[in-house]
Design a protein that fits this description.
There is one protein chain. With 148 residues, the chain is mostly beta strands. It folds into two domains: 88 residues, no CATH class; 37 residues, no CATH class. It is built from two helices and nine strands. The strands form three sheets. A four-stranded mixed beta sheet has the order 1-3-5-6, with no helix packed on it. Strand 8 and strand 9 form a beta hairpin. It is globular.
């Protein structure tokens, strides 16, 4: 175990491992993990995914929130079994029994039903995220062409 190699009074530091494949949470050779209620953000734009799972058996993400750069997946899964994500932004609720390689980007209005929120660029919106103005619309209002 890594802690035993470093000594009991010296916990591992992120710099000891170099640049990791995820800016938020990197899991490798893990079983039965259940991250819940975590939020990951970056100070400056980061082109790495928020979550990378490599050789993981049993992962259930619930009520998590991850910032991501445009076109960068929120999750990268490699050799993952029994993976579930629920109520986690920016991806849609998903389950995979087994996946060799999969990248989960953001959910779109076509991926969700009911009133799951989707984010779209809209001129004159009240909230600002980065340089673009955005507003949150329900999937139902997107299908009908209405906005709040």
């Amino acid at each position: 175990m890594l802690l035993n190699l470093l000594g009991p009074d010296l916990p591992p530091e992120p710099a000891m491992f170099g640049v990791l494949p995820a800016y938020g949470l990197y899991l490798r050779h893990a079983r039965r993990i259940e991250p819940a209620g975590i939020e990951v953000r970056f100070a400056a734009p980061d082109l790495r995914p928020a979550f990378v799972l490599d050789d993981v058996d049993g992962a259930r993400f619930r009520d998590c929130d991850a910032q991501r750069a445009s076109e960068v997946p929120a999750f990268v899964l490699r050799d993952v079994r029994d993976f579930t994500v629920r109520h986690t932004r920016p991806v849609a609720d998903t389950h995979f029994d087994a996946v060799r390689h999969k990248e989960l980007l953001t959910k779109s209005a076509g991926d969700v039903a009911g009133a799951v929120a989707a984010v779209f660029s809209v001129p004159g919106a009240t909230r600002r995220r980065g340089a673009a103005q955005v507003t949150t619309l329900s999937a139902a209002s997107v299908r009908s062409g209405a906005s709040r």
